[in-house]
Amino acid sequence: MTVPRCKHFDICGSAAYQRVGDDDFCALHVPPKAQKANASLRPAFEQYVQRGGCDFRWMYLPATAGVSFERQTFAQHVDFTGASIQSVGLANSRLLGGLTVDTDANTVDLFQAVVEGPVLVKTPRPISVRLARGEFGERVEVQAGGMLSLDISYATIAGFASFVAPRMEGLNAAAVVCKAGLKLEGLIAGWSLADITVHRLFDLRSCIFAGGIVSLDSLTGDADLDLRGAAFSAAFSLRTSAIRRLYIARTRFGGECDVRAPLGGRPIAVIAEDTRPTFLSETRLTNVDLAACLIVGNPIGRLHLSDAIWPTWQRRRVLYDEIKLRRHADAAPLRSVEEAYQALKKMYQDKGDHSHAGDFHYGEMEMRRHDRSNWRSLACWEFPYWFLSGYGTRPAWSLAWLCFLTFVSACFYYWLGDHSFGEALRFSVAVATLQKRDDPSGGWVKVLQMIASAVVLALFILAVRMRVKR
Ligand SMILES: [Zn+2]
Asked: What is the β-pairing status of strands 283-293 and 303-309?
């Protein structure tokens, strides 16, 4: 007669201990509902672990049985899938093959643990996970269906670290080192984010920070910070050299926002390519690159910019909103972009930066001109202003027009009169420069040239003045 085997013999390799319904189970696999006082559980467990057992799938390991995983070394991947266990206590242990906890456990403790393989913790319920001071050689992934209480302080994680839960409370990430990136997702209430080190990607997409100030000033490393769709209820501060790119499309800054790369250092590229962020309070952007950042829609008066790098369009500095507008019809309305340019022009004028102010003046006039239907954009005052002097910012254009007018007029004088061309040209120059020449020839051409030249000359002088003021 053969000895009956446990239903999960492939896991435990044990003989049957108890029959429940139609199935046989070993002492470790007896289902919870059939468990009463299972005196054999603890000895069976200790024997199993001593034999090098790492696979705890479908086992029933109640806290009352007194089983402990602490200070042990597990050579293989430790798997708790489907196990009935409340608290997975692996503090100070060494897990050479990684860990999977896919159960209803409410606590996973890896305090000071050394885990060389990947860690996956997955539960549909609330859970408390402690990875503090642990060392993790590969990726760490925690997905909770309920509230997650997370402590990763002073841990070192070599792989990508991802923590996703509908809500996190008391998040402690102080001094954590994430060498391949860190992702947090959910509503975060209560956090400590001091002295974090993140490389490659710091992913806070769609995170909602409810409550106090979020300061990433002490952040170190070299990463992109992704805040797309995130929301901050209070102030946000990022004054660090650790961030290369900052993604803020759809980000909502409820309090003051301060983004600053050290002066003289690499600027932070602030990126919002498809949807603008929302700044609800004073916003300071220092040493930032706004080459791909939509802004229009936010009150520019709340924006304090210094050392901002703007994108260029036809050799003038513009708002990314204008570039977007020229490429897609469905971008921000022209009128809003015009207002933004007006505010930026004033901001730079107040700072005495006439070079920037001139470019934004040009942008403002461009938006005003294009805010008309096609034919009206040609038949408005802005058109000749643009055409003849680039809205008063391009003296070279005016000068070219003046030369052209003088030359064309000279041709007329040559054609109408009986002078040599050289004489006709000299006469034309004299008219253009409003010198008195009592020469009866010319007639109406002379009158028209005088008026046109006077206008262009005035525009030229204005444009030169604007240039010199810079
Ligand atoms: Zn078994």
From this structure: parallel
